[in-house]
Each structure stands twice: as structure tokens, then as C-alpha cells.
Amino acid sequence: MLQTTHSDDPNVQEKIDKLAKRDRKTEQFFRWVLKIMEWIIAGITLIALVGALGIEVVNMVTEGTAYFADVSHMLHNLLSIVVGLEFVRMLIDTTPANILEVLTVAITRHVILSHDDPWSNVACIACIAGLFAIRRFLVRRSELRQEMVDSFCQRSLHSPGAAIPDISLLL
């Protein structure tokens, strides 16, 4: 963004102001276009995830107990859908807390589904611990409070008797 400067000449100052205003409008336009593109990508991804979930449900019904015989395959498919849903949530509401949550879910999925050596699992657990430390010490408290309030408001719409969250834990 163009930094506004001051000029003693009124004509020059007027041109500077016009350029600054045009730059602000251009920046706002590009931010709007990018937000619309994020929503479109989120919508397409959500449609694909609903389709994948539908396929999994159909497979569960048609294959019966044979579907549940390969637990690893079932977990792989279902946890991939969960990671995808977290990704859609991150696209719609991009906050540091949501990004950390998506990374935590993705790494956790890897730990559950992979059959790597123990050192790989230790590294993944260390990454998850690092993400929790980042969330605790580097994410602004106001964002965490707002996330708790938003979560409470959504829950209270569905169940009016929901408990009020203890925000003092974040202080």
C-alpha cells in the first residue's frame, strides 16, 4: 500500500491523496476477490466431502460387516473427511487458532493411521506438543476468548441449557 506523504503544493497533495485512495480501493477489491475465491473453493471441497461421506455410508450399508473388517481403511477414509472438514472451516474462518487446529488434526490423523517407526511417532507427538505451546503462548488471548464465545453461542442455539464457558482459564 502506498504510504501517504504530505506536500506543501496543493496540486501535488491532491494527486497523492487520489493515488492513496485508488490504492486502498484496489487493495479492498483484491481482498474481496480472494475471499470470494476462498468461499468457492470451500464450497467445492465441502460438496466433495459430502459426496465422499455418502460413498462411505453406502459402502457401510452394502458391504455390511465386511466393511468394518479392514479398520485401517475405514479410519483412513473417515479421518480424511474430518481433516477436509477442518480445512473448509479454516478457509471460511481464517484465524491462527483454526490453522493450528487443522494442523493438529492432520498430524493426529497421521499418528493414528501410520505404522511408522517409533521415532516418527515421537516426532509427531513433539509437533503436536509444539502446536499446543504455540496456541498457549503465541496466539492472542482475545482471539481465543472470541473463539470460546463464538463456540458457546453456537452451542447455546442448539441447547439452551448449555454451561457458560469459564473465560478466566484463558487469563
Could you characterize what this model shows?
It is a single chain. This protein is an all-alpha fold. It has six helices and no strands. α1 packs antiparallel against α3, α3 packs antiparallel against α4 and α4 packs antiparallel against α5. The radius of gyration is 23 Å and the shape is elongated. It starts with 9 loop residues before the first helix and ends in a 13-residue tail after the last helix.
Low-pLDDT segments, ≥5 res: none
pLDDT averaged over residues: 82
Distance between the termini: 36 Å
Count of individual helical segments: 6
* Computed Rg: 23 Å
Q: Which geometry do the CA atoms define?
A: elongated
Task: Please state roughly what percent of the residues sit in beta strands, choosing from under 5%, 5-15%, 15-25%, 25-35%, 35-45% or over 45%.
Answer: under 5%
Helix content: over 70%
* Helix and strand sequence: HHHHHH
Count of beta strands: 0
Structural class: mainly alpha
* Largest pleated sheet: none
